[in-house]
Amino acid sequence: MKHTLSVLVENKPGVLTRIAGLFARRGYNISSLAVGETDDPDVSRMTIVVSGDEVVIEQVCKQLNKLVDVIKLTDITDKEFIGREMIFIKVNCPDAKARMEIMQFVDIFRARVVDIGKDTMIIEATGEAAKIDAIEDTLRPFGIRDFVRTGQIAMVRGAKNPKHPKKSN
Amino acid sequence: MKMKAAESLMKILEDHGVDVIFGYPGGAVLPIYDAILKNDNIKHVLVRNEQAAPHAASGYAKMKNRPGVCLATSGPGATNLVTGIATAYMDSVPMVAITGQVSTPMIGTDAFQEVDITGITMPITKHNYLVKDAKDLPRIMSEAFHVASTGRPGPVLVDIPRDVADTMIEHPDDLTVNIKGYKPTYKGHNSQIKKIVKALEKAEAPLIMAGGGMQYAGAGDELKEFAERIDAPVVTTLNAISIFPETDKRALGMLGMHGRPAANYAVSHCDLLISLGARFGDRATGSVGKFAKKATIIHIDIDPAEIGKNVRVDVPIVGDVKIILKDLNAAVEQRDHSEWNSKVADWKLEHPMSDQYGNESDLKPQKILELLGDLTRDRAVVTTDVGQHQMWTALHYDFEKERTLITSGGLGTMGYGFPAAIGAQMADPEKLVICVTGDGSFQMSLPEMATAIEHCLPIKIVLMNNSSLSLVKQLQHFQCDRRYSGIDFTANPDFCLLAQAYGVKTFRIEKEEEMEEKLAEALASEGLTLIECIVSDKEMVYPFVPGKKGLDEMVKFEKLK
Ligand SMILES: Cc1cc2nc3c(=O)[nH]c(=O)nc-3n(C[C@H](O)[C@H](O)[C@H](O)COP(=O)(O)OP(=O)(O)OC[C@H]3O[C@@H](n4cnc5c(N)ncnc54)[C@H](O)[C@@H]3O)c2cc1C
Ligand SMILES: Cc1ncc(C[n+]2csc(CCOP(=O)(O)OP(=O)(O)O)c2C)c(N)n1
């Protein structure tokens, strides 16, 4: 099963290597990983989607927690959270008919056209993984030229979002 | 106070009670060596190969129960530390390893003797640092000692570029450590303690399994009281040997792949197993599926990640085992399990270790170790290398005093024993330090004889010379249908002559009749001493548990009829 981990880490060089290295060395599977600074520039948040059974996930969490640079880890899988991924898809669009069709799909999915080339279009979409998969499937018949997809970022609804620990200084 | 970062480094070492560094110089550590020269309180032990430095630091750390320190230059100096750091990591040894690095402007340019040692050691350190800004050095060094010695101990590496070490900085007065992401748990959870007490009340055949964590916790006395209270026998992992006197009636000795019969039977028959600071390594458990099958398992460990990693656990509790044992001792009533204990005592009687000698040779290595134990167990610290001699030490010496066996368990690093003895002897110059080694292992650390001579260390080296890598030979005997490959030494030196060239006193024992007298004489002699015992390469370590088998399926020695 897929688990979504929200991890606060020190924003230091090498942190990503420590985490990626840990996954590689212990044979855990990262499905996706998104990382960026938080409002505190010393702290980054990683959203890691990892697959495995309960025993594996428990080990993943414990091993991550063991890293000195990991400040706080929360498995938010069972919490109510909003998760979003983003994609760019460059599709073939040889003629006006194709363009019309694509625009319709874009509308239905509440995606956006962000570029129109001579015979291609770039579509941008954000959403949950399932929606992103659906967009991809729908556009595939036109011929996908290029495809970029981010890892998931996630936030727990309501007040229970894993907060920054109070900083000492 | 203003000073060079390298001097600030020395000050912090001193503040942490460091009185000796094991190291080897080079270009990138020139500023640090300069600072060493200016310092009167810290001794530098120049090893002959950086490989020995972390091993020596480990021996020191295990003696003193606080971080050992090693130092090497950038590039090849740093990479030579790697095996020793990994060895320390696997056995949770507190250590601070300091490496020089090329100057910051050169980093990333494949400069002369540049190697990414923080990258290389990421998987084998508890944490590591590259100091990019000199003013961070005091904080980082303080953190390094804190991380290395608290929670589950382990090695921490600090990589210091040459220009950083040379920079003038303000040495801060306040070096209180506060790491957001690092807060080990010491106190065990009350509700878990209650669960353990309940489990103890229900148990009819409880067994204590002590692990290496007990040594760091220094919980020998608490263990003795606990064993009395719950009236249970005690098995130990290799890393825990000596925490519980093996001469005690409750002691069953080492469990595991080369465990003693009574210990392994007890594991297989107990209905409650209380693990104290052990990590259920595969050498200790045998086939995991068959491990302690009848038992409820209680796992006490300071590292949450150890819980449930290798075996199923019924009652986990995270914390320092000394503190938890104190709580438990206060909470449990005196129990009586005489039936179970007499069953266990019978196993012990039925399978004395003297039955596991094997009958291949005249001068039995097992007997030498038994004798060595009789002569020294009340006063010696024993380090070992890795091989048959290590297992025989674990099985036949009968350790009695806390923290008197120093050995490489998790990584099983040949070449560990002698430098570890150097570290141990540096830590306690008055102690009788014995290194039990094999001709294979000793040849990985031979040059360190010069180091020991230089510092007048009176270590007694007991070399089991069988002209072969016999533990591997034993594996080939049983697992490869006696196809022996790459295990014979046909051109060994005359070890006594060689040692004499270093200025070492030597003894050679070839027959059992001379064993007692020569051993006693050698142990009483002054200075660094080599006792070479010529033993057979046909000897086997018994018992052993074949792969995929449970502990009670061990192969014991059967006397030829
Ligand atoms: C040739 C060879 C054969 C071997 N055969 C055997 C064998 O037959 N039997 C055997 O047992 N071993 C054997 N070993 C050793 C084996 O590989 C392991 O190193 C050993 O079993 C590990 O011991 P341990 O479980 O006590 O763990 P250690 O590696 O010593 O780990 C200590 C544990 O204690 C925890 N801890 C640390 N401090 C504390 C504290 N203050 N409070 C609570 N917990 C703490 C740590 O988190 C860790 O989990 C062999 C090794 C070699 C080289
Ligand atoms: C550095 C290293 N290389 C290889 C091994 C594999 N190995 C384990 S025991 C052993 C033989 C050790 O020989 P020796 O030191 O002579 O001891 P003996 O078994 O003969 O007592 C070897 C090669 C190891 N443990 N460590």
Overview of this protein structure:
The complex is a heterodimer of chains A (169) and B (561). Chain A has 169 residues and is of the alpha+beta class. Chain A contains four helices and nine strands. Chain A has two domains: 2-79, Alpha-Beta Plaits (2-Layer Sandwich); 82-153, Alpha-Beta Plaits (2-Layer Sandwich), CATH 3.30.70.1150. Chain A is elongated. Chain B is of the alpha/beta class and 561 residues long. A six-stranded parallel sheet of chain B has the order 3-2-4-5-7-6, sandwiched between helices. A six-stranded parallel sheet of chain B has the order 11-10-9-12-13-14, sandwiched between helices. In chain B, α13 links the parallel β12 (272-276) and β13. In chain B, α1 packs parallel to α7, α3 (52-64) packs parallel to α5 and α12 (261-269) runs antiparallel to α15 (338-350). The mean pLDDT of chain B is 97. The interface between A and B is medium-sized, with 24 and 19 residues. The complex binds flavin-adenine dinucleotide and thiamine diphosphate.
